Structures are given as C-alpha cells and as structure tokens.
Amino acid sequence: MATNDLMMELQKDSIKLDEDSEKKVVAMLLKLLEDKNGEVQNLAVKCLGPLVNKVKEYQVETMVDTLCSNMMSEKEPLRDISSMGLKTIIAELPPSSTGLSLTVNVCKKITSQLIGAIGKQEDVSVQLEALDILSDMLSRLSGTLVSFHASILSSLLPLLTSSRLAVRKRAIIALSHLVSSCSSALFTQLAEHLLAELSSGQVTSATRTYIQCLATISRQGGHRVGEHLEKIIPLVVKYCSVEDDELREYCFQAFEAFVRRCPKEMSCHISTIVKLCLKYITYDPNYNYDADEEDEDDSMDTDNEEQESDDEYSDDDDMSWKVRRSSAKCLEAVISTRRDLLLELYGSVAPALVARFREREENVRTDIFLAFIALLRQTRAPPGHLAPTEYGAKEDPALSQLKKQVPSIVKALHKQLKEKSIKSRQGCFSLLTELASVAPGALADHIPNVLLSTGIVYSLTDKSSSSNMKIDALSFLYVLLCNHPPEVFHPHIKIFLPPVVRCTEDPFYKITSEALLVTQQIVKIVRPLEKPTSMTFDVRPYVKDLFSATLQRLKAADIDQEVKERAISCMGYIICHLGDQLGADLQPTLQIFLDRLKNEITRFSAVKALTLITASPLKIDLRPVLPEGIQILGSFLRKNQRALKLSTLSALTVLVTNYSDSLKPSMMESVVNELPALISESDVHVSQMAIALLTCMTKVCPSSLTKIGGTVLPEVLHLVHSPLLQGGALGAIVELLQALVVNKASNISYNELVKSLTGPFFGSQKSAEPVHRQSYYSVAKCVAALSTACPNEASATISNFIQEVKATRTSESARILSFLCLGEMGRSMNLGGQKELKTVILEAFSSSNDEVKSAASCALGNICVGNLKEYLPFMLKEIGSQPKRQYLLLHSLKEVISASTAEKLKPHVEEIWALLFKHCECAEEGTRNVVAECLGKLTLVNPAQLLPQLKKQLSSGSPHARSTVVTAIKFTIVDQPMPIDELLKDCIGDFLKTLQDPDLNVRRVALVMFNSAAHNKPALIRRLLGTVLPALYKETQIRKELIREVEMGPFKHTVDDGLDIRKAAFECMYTLLDSCLKDHYDIRVLYMNLRNSISMLTFIMLARLCALSPAAVTQRLDRLVEPLRATCTTKVKAGSVKQEFEKQEELRRSAMRAVAALLSIKEIQQSPVMVDFASLIHSNTEMATIFESIQKDTSSTACATETMDTS
Q: Where is this region: Disordered (predicted)?
C-alpha cells in the first residue's frame, strides 16, 4: 500500500525531494525489488520511471548500477524484475536532443555492462534480457551511444551463429536498430561480414540467420544497403534454389525489403525477382490442384463436402505455404513501387495471381488478393492523365489489359465467394470493390455471378457471416451500383433487394448505415430521373419495401447519429425518385422531415434532403409544409454554421425556382430579412449564394422584393466596389442587376442603378478612399449587363461616357471607368454608330497616365469583339502603321482573340497570323510576349493548320523569333481539355528540343513552357521525361562564363546572367515533383545548389521531396545536412543594411522548414549527423526559438487542413 502511495506522489509535478530523501527513496525502492511479493516488486518498478526525473544524476546511476548487477543474478525472478526496471528507466530518460548529460552518462553506464552480459555465453537467459534492453536503448537513444557502436557490433556479430534461435533473432533486432544510426564505415563492416559468411557456399542454420539479418537491416536502414546490392542479390538468388523452405522464405523477405527500400538500385534486378516470385508462388509440392479443378465440374451437392475435405487437410511439417506467401508479398512490393512496369506486370504477373486465387492456405490467399489489389490501385490514372473521353485521348493500355482479364478474374473468384471462410470472402469483396472503382462498367456481364446466391446475397443471408463480412458485402454492392448503368441491375433487383432491406433492420448500427446507403443507390437505379423516358422497368413492386424499411429508421429516435443521417438522406431520395408512388404516405413523411428540421442534430441532413425533394422533376406536393418549412429555413440563415447556411441557401433557391406559384410575399419575408447580413466581402461564396437566391426571387416572385431597395441592394452595391469580387460572385451580381431592371422589381430604374454603380468614381459622389483596380472592372461589367438588358436607355449612357472621356476636366478615375464601361458595353453591343469613338481611344493612347492607356487598349479590344467587321481591319492597320502605339494595340488584339469565338475569327486568321509574325522578332521583350500570347491563343482557333506553322518557325528565324514561338506554345497549354491536346502530344517533343538551344533566353522560355505543361497537362510530357530531364538538370548548374563583374563607382558588383534560367529550371523541377517525378528524381541536383543564390527555392523543394520520396532523401542525407547547417549558422556582418538581415532571417527560416521536414522521416531522426544537427539547434536559443515556431506553424496548418469545412 505504501509503495502504491509513493507511486501516486511521484507522478505529481509538485513533489520535490531533498538529497537525504532522494537517497532513502532510491535505496528503499531497490530493496523492494527483492521483495517476495510479486505485486510489490511490480509497483517498485513503476516507481522507478517517474523517479528518474525527480532525483539527481548520481542517484539514477546508483539505480542503474544496482539493476545491472541484479540482472546478472542467478535468481531468475530478481533477474526478470531488474530487466523490467532497466527498461522502465530507459523509457523515461529525456531525449539526447535536449542536451542533458543525464541521458548520455546513464546510457554509457548501462551499455558497458550490457556488452559484458552479452558475452556470457554460458547463461542464455541473461543474454536474452541484455539483448532486449540493448535493442530498447538503440531504438530510442542510439545517438548517445556512438562511442559504443563498434563494440556493440563486435559483441552482436558472434551471436548470429548462436545455437539458440531466440538469441539469433534478438541479435538481429538489435543490429537493425544499430544500422539506422551507425557510421557508414561500421555499416560497411557489417555488410561485408554478412557477405563473407554467405559467400562461403555452405548452407547451415546460420545461413538463414544471415539472410534474415539482411532483410531486417534493409527494412531499418535500407538506403545504405543500396551500394552493396550488386554483391548481395546474386547470393540471395542462389540460395532460392536450395531445398529449404524456411531459407527460401527469408530470401523472398529480403527481396521484398530491397525492392521497397532501394527501388532505384533494384531496377536492373526486378525481372529476375519477378521470375523467381512467379516460380515459387505456385510452389506446393504436397497438393494436386489439377485434381481439385476436375472436381469443380461435379454437382453442387458435393461442393460442400469437397470444401470440408480441403479444410481437413493439414500437414504440420509442410512449410511450403510460407514460401508462397513471401513470394506474393514480394510481388506486391514490386507492383507498389514500379508503376512504370504496369503493362509488363499485366502480361506476366496478373494471370499468375489470378490463377493462384484457388490457393488452399487462407493466409497465402489473402496476400495474393492484396497483391492483385495493389495492381488495381496502380492502374488508376495518375494526376494530369487525359481521360479517354477528352478529345480523342486513348484509353490507358493497362486499363484495356485489365478489362480483357475481367472474365478470368470473376471466374477465379466465383468459387471463393462460396467459401465458408469469412476472411476469403472479405478478400474477394475488397478486390472486386477496387476492380469496380478502377474499371467502371467492367463487371456488367458478370452481375449474376457476383450478385446471386454465390456472391453478395449469400454473404448477406448466411447466418455464420460476421458483421464485418456484411459491411464489406454492402460496401462492394454500393460501389458496384455506382459504377454500372442502371439497366444492368433491373433483372436482379428482386433477388438482392430483400437481403439489403433486412440489413436495414440489423441491430448493429454500422450494418444498418451501410444498408441505407445501398438502399439509396437502389432507389436511384430503379428509377433514374436523368433518362426517365427510356426506362420501361416497373418500379411499383419494390416501392413498399424500400419505403417501409427506410421509414422505420427515419421514425426511430433512439438510434445512432450516422443511421439517422443516412435514413433522412435515403428517404429524401425515395421521395425525389418515387414520390408519385407513395400516395397517402407522402404527407406524413414530409411532416417527419419538418420535425427533423427543428432538431439541431438532424437539421443539416434534413436541409440537404429537402433540396433533393424540391429539385425533383416529379413536382412533389409540398404546399402543406411550405409555410412552416420556409420559416424554419429562414431562421437557419442567421446561424453561425457556415455549411448549414450554404445548404439552406441552395435549398431555398431550388424551392423558389420550382414552387413559385405556391409562395406568398408574407412567407418569404423572413428569408429576405436575413439576406443583407449574408452579403459581404468577408465570405464571398455565401454572398454569391445569397445573391443567386435574390435573382431567382426577382425572376419568379418579384412581389416579395418590394423593400430590398433600402436593405439588400446597398449591400450588393457595396460588394460590387470590393477588391475581392470576381468570378462566380461577380457573375451572380450581374445576373441580379439584369433581373431587377427586366422584371422591374422594387421600383429601381436603370438610371438609378447605373448612377449608384458609377457614383464613387464621378463628381460629388466620388469616394474619398482610393478605389481598387478590380472595382473598375466589376462596375464596368455590371453597367454593361444593365445596358444589354435595357438597350433603349443604353445609348444615352454610352454618349455620357464618351463625353466624360473627351472632357479635360474629367478625373483620371472617371476616365478609366468610362473606357472600361465602353469596352464592356461594346463587347455585347455594336458601337459602330459612335463615329468619334476610334479617335477618342487613339488619343487616349497618348495619355500620361498608364492606367488610362491600359483601359483604352482594353476598351478597343472589347469594342472590336462586338464589331469585328469594322474595328478589326482598323486595328490591324494601326498596328502596322503606328510603331509607338504598337504595344497597346497588340494588347487590344489579344483581347479580341481571347474573347471572340473561333467561327468569327476564322475568316481573319491568315491576316492576323501574318501581321503577328512580322512583329515576333521585335527587340522589346514585352512586345514579343504579347505577340506570343496572341499567336498561342490564335493557334487554338485552328490547331491542325496553325500548329505545324509554329513548328516550322523553330528551324528558321532569329533567337527572338524562336523564343516567341516557344512562348506561344505555352499559351496553347491550358488546364481545360482542348482539341489541340492530341496534336500537341505528338509534336511537343520538337518544341522541347529548344532546351538545348544555343541562346540563353530561348532555353529560359522553353523551361517556362515545360513548367506550364507539367502543371496543366503532365500527360503531354510524361513519356518524354527520359530525354528532357538531362537537359533540365544541366540548366541547374552554375556557369562561370555567365558570371561577370560590373563596376558601380568605387564598388564592383557580381552579376550572374544565368540566375533567371536556373530559377526557371528549379521551378520546373518543383512542379514536376507533384505531377511526374517522385521516385525518379535526381536529388543530387538539390544538394549541389543548397548554398547558392537560389537556395531558398531548393529548401522548399527539399521539404516537398521529404513528403513525396523519403527514401531518396534518406540516401543522400549526409550531403544535405552540411549546407543546411551552414545556412542556419551563418551570421550577417555587423555593418550590413537592414535588407541583408531580413534576407538572412528568411533564408534561415526556410532552411529550418526543410530541417523540420527531414525530421518527420523516422529513419532520419536516428541518423548521427541529424542528431548532432538537432542538438546544435536546441542548444542555440535563437535557432531553437525559430525551429519551435516553425513546428507550431506546421502542426496548426495540418490541423486546419483536417478540420476544413468541405461541405
């Protein structure tokens, strides 16, 4: 009892012991370890942990000395309890990175005694305990034992030949923890020792140990094994042919570890390993599968008997199943790491795996399923892959191969789905679920085999099926229903619906929830609303079962939250798809929905279900519930739950659209009153949804908006002038303003709206605060939209804007807005009648204000879009004859090409093309860039004709012309699917050859174009990486011939002309990291540039690479740490300017982020160089503060990502 009280006190932070008390407590606890009562001994051990951090260092050393000597005792109980005590102390020692000497001194004291204990060959139990403790220390505190690493290795190596298997295994575990932190020289010593022993050629029990050791150290420190693989692999391959099943198992485990940990070094050995795996995955000398296949054709009556006889088969001496299992795992490792070999794997490995689905051992069969699932996951299209439906893109060859093998896969799984083994059936369903997701529609011809009594129905109705079995079967059925056309299932509904309905009544909530999700999908397939006319399926026999099962769960109050939400959603779909079949049951069900809307827990799900019901083309009768329902929905708009607000606004919009004839102004008043508070720049998306609802009300029930002029409209106009307004929100406001003037809602006239919009830019109403540039464009679009809706009143507005532009007294802001408004109005209206407009715009090109000139240029382009016939010839003529205005006129032309349709532009393409090529060699880079953008966007109009002309210009012309052509290609690569994509895929290699152009600027723009392709459409360049990457890596090097000195008065300044191209190269590499490279990345390029002028960019890339390919980073760690250390410890000279200090501080923070990313890799945490670097950071107050703040930023960002509202 007293020991227990002591333990409780020691666990409190408040307890403080003086020196005398420490001595007494330690002595008493060590004495209690020898107590005869086992419970007292255990409590004493538990006290040791908290005591470590409460007493002085020499007391901890006293405890350790006593425990170590007791561990050598001849008394087994004392030995065991002392070992536990040592493990407890080791677990409580503070990490060595904190800089405390306690950990170092205690570890050294324990280690020296453990090494002595390990050498005691006569007492195996002492050896085992010592090895256990040593493994604990090495796994947690290896960095503090660097001075002992050599002696630890020397003491462990002889144990690999011990006569006791347990000793050998624990020695291997200790070695695996040692290799992750020992020096390269020691690792080489260990590797050479193992190689020497394996090269002897004699097969002994130690041979198995050595190969097992190779596999284990590869898993822990695999990056280091890479340089020895050329010698290791032939030896391991040779031992595979030895008639020893256990040895073969260890060989394949070693192969698996090598493949996973050293993918690059294993590339040349993959084919050998795959052949061995395929050979031994069928290795089963004690079983005749052919006889089993013949019996498969017998009657169904004998199936169960055969299964029973299979289960009864047993041979305790048969170890061949371990060989087959390790082969399957090795194949899974190859598949998971080598997506580039996918087609070959489908040709050789896939059929072999399918053939082995009949494997008699359940554990082996599970691993074969997992290997095939890995193959299916690799078949998923990578990011940026062109979908087959996109402009003639071909189906992925691997997916085509998979579809050809679907019949054999289903046939092989057919028997397994009848197995009594739940584990086997679960494996089948996992595989089929993945198959249905990867290849939608591929199982359409096999639904009877997969669904009927041998498949899902059997697993759902079999009384012996576990809960997990039913959940897996339902999950697969859901994926199957989602990924196949509805008509495929119609003949089978009557078979699989009853068991699903029974599952909705299951007492286990997870089964019920999954069954409701499947029921929801069944409702969608029995009567798909997307194509109702083509459906001849009679849904009436199934309505009652679907409705009753869901209603029972919808009414229940004492069920799990997940089931409640699924029941609400499922009933929403039933009413949406089958509402006209429910008759008298409809209105009571809608009343239940009202109750769920009033409940805080279920209201969100109820709103989403209500949105479905109101959007139904069946026009469900909602009149009885509308008054109360709309009032409740209106109250949700003032709630502080953003997702609820968005769903409510969506529901109200659909409700107003489809049920306007049932709505009265009084019903909508509560909703309208809540809208002003929702329209603000603090949440533009909510504002957009609220404005969309207003627009809908304006169109279908304008009488509800009589009072918005003084409430909602001021908020809308305030948002128009916000710098944050753009995209969808701006489009919503434009639509609202048009609806207001067309429907004459709220008695607001066209002129009043125009005046309110333009007021802050003109005369007495002009805003005192500076107006953001974006506000001009927003107001211009709104004014143009109003003018389009009211063309009769627009002519006066146009005249007013022209007068404002001409008047000398007009402010710059009013002139800019007037030009932008004229441009936007001209885009949708023909302004050919305004004869003085051309003159006014050309005069503005001579303005002293750059923004006025830009606005005039934009206006000319937009006006031309609305009147190509008159303005385009005028513009082209001016470009040719006015060199001073050329840049602005080309910008206007860019607007025309960007905004005009291909049909309108085609008659003028040749004329524009010829003019642009006259200016592609312009000396000014800005002009060339605009010409390039025009060429690129014009190519999209007729790619088949124009792309070859661009390609032709690569071989002829000056460097300026080549750079313009390459930049033009960048503008043809957009993030949306385009007809040009297939043409580009065939010829982009020719444009990428400019990466080797003799001109520096051409290479730079080629890199920018390459970056654009990697970001927007990586599929275009993925197959060319082998030829392009060497040129890319070459551009990351510093070239001395591009560095020059410039004299600036008494000072000399170094200028690097290659800096821009190196930056472009690294930006390109960063983009490629996400879209194409990962494991095929040459990390040497990084550590060669960690100390130069673009080091910040390389730090960012290093941090990204840590997440994407930790193995590659770990292999080069030694070379990465030194530049990071140099950056973190560099100090700016005392007399430097403020900017130098800020630059160095930002560099240091960037380097620290890279360090934090490195420390997130488990292997790197134990590396000696990283442990030293971490200690250096923690020992320096300034660096430690920066590092802690970065770690906090990282964790808070991760939390924010996890809790982000995605609804």
A: 291-320
